[in-house]
């Protein structure tokens, strides 16, 4: 007789949420005026915001989760494009971004996130909070870029820290609950 082995797929959600949450907190510490923009933020954007979320998105594709696959791969590519915009405008002929184009860039991400938030209506409250606060963050950042308002930027930074922290909490809840095979942390 041959032995049948079962393969359990890992839950990619915590990895993607940690990649998003940690990167979002770090960038928004800058937006809130607490730390300077540095290679630390950009490297986190490439590695955790980009690569970790992209891996999680591919895992979600394999698991047949369209929402998770779309969310994680899209936001991974957001981080990649944002770092590219901030670091390497010369690669595209020296064209730097301006407030208006960044405003529209962030507004498009706000609209996308609104639709993703609607998709969370069947999910837990923690996931709803992550996507709602992300939508608000993109809206505030778009307004900051359209208006040039430093105050709106600081408010966005504070809101972004909360958004990222909510994603970290949701990720940790997924890890802890998965390890104990029962709900430990409320989501």
Q: Can you offer a commentary on this structure?
A:
With 187 residues, this protein is mainly alpha-helical. Helices cover 75% and strands 0% of the residues. The protein has six helices and no strands. α1 (13-31) packs parallel to α3 (66-87). It is globular. The mean pLDDT is 94.
Strand content: under 5%
Continuous helix count = 6
Q: Please estimate the helix content.
A: over 70%
Helical/strand content category: mainly alpha
The termini sit apart by 44 Å
What letter string, H or E per element, gives the SSE order? HHHHHH
DSSP, total strands:
0
Descriptive tags:
about 190 residues, mainly alpha, 6 helices, about 75% helix, about 0% strand
Topology:
Elements: H1 13-31, H2 39-63, H3 66-87, H4 99-119, H5 125-147, H6 150-180
In short:
The protein has helices at residues 13-31, 39-63, 66-87, 99-119, 125-147, 150-180. It has 187 residues and is mainly alpha-helical.
């Amino acid at each position: 007789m041959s032995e049948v082995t079962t393969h359990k797929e890992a839950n990619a959600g915590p990895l993607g949420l940690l990649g998003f949450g940690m990167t979002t907190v770090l960038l928004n510490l800058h937006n809130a005026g607490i730390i300077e923009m540095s290679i630390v933020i950009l490297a986190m954007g490439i590695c955790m915001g980009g690569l970790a979320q992209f891996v999680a998105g591919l895992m979600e594709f394999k698991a047949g989760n369209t929402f998770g696959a779309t969310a994680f791969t899209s936001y991974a590519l957001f981080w990649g494009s944002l770092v590219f915009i901030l670091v390497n405008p010369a690669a595209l002929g020296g064209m730097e971004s301006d407030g208006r184009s960044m405003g529209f860039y962030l507004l498009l991400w706000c609209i996308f996130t609104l639709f993703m938030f609607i998709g969370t209506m069947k999910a837990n409250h923690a996931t709803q909070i992550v996507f709602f606060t992300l939508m608000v963050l993109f809206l505030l950042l778009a307004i900051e870029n359209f208006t040039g308002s430093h105050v709106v930027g600081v408010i966005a930074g504070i809101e972004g820290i909360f958004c990222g922290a909510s994603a970290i909490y949701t990720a940790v809840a997924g890890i802890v609950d998965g390890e104990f095979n029962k709900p430990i942390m409320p989501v």
